[in-house]
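ok trying this again, last paste got cut off
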Amino acid sequence: MGNIFSGGEVVEIGIQIEKNGKDFYNALAKKTKNKDAMKIFDYLAKEEEKHITVFQGIFDSVSKYEPPESYPGEYFAYMNALAAEYVFTQANKGAETAGSVKSDSDAIDLGIKFEKDSIIFYEGTKKVVPDYDSKVIDELIIQEQNHLRILMDLKRNL
C-alpha cells in the first residue's frame, strides 16, 4: 500500500501545497505582461501565504489526532492516493511549473487545475483533523473556491 500519512503529515502536505501555490503565482506575476493577470497573480500569491500561516496553526492540534475510520488507515490511505497525484505536494514545484508556462492562457488553466486539486485535497483533509480545525479548513476551501472563480473570470476576460 505504500506510505500512510498521519494527521500532522496531511497538514504538512497542505503547507507544501500552499508554498508551491505562492511560488507559482509569484513566478507567473513576474512572467506575465498583462497587468490584470499580474494583479490577480500577486493577489493569489498573498492569499497562499495567509493559508500557510493557517495550516501552521492547525499542525500542533492534529499531530496526535486519529480520525474515525471503517478500517485502520482508511483516511490516510485516501490522502496518500490524492497526494501522490498532485504535483504541488512535492517541494519546490511551484516556480518550476510556472517556468514551463508558455502563455497567460496556459498559466490560468494551470491555476484553475491547481485550485480544483487543492479543494479536493482540503475536503479530504477535513476527515483527518478534529472538528474545530475542520471548520478552519472549510474557510480555506471557500477561499480556494473564490480563487477558482477569480481565475475563471480572468480566463473569460483574456
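PB: full thing came through this time. The radius of gyration is 16 Å.
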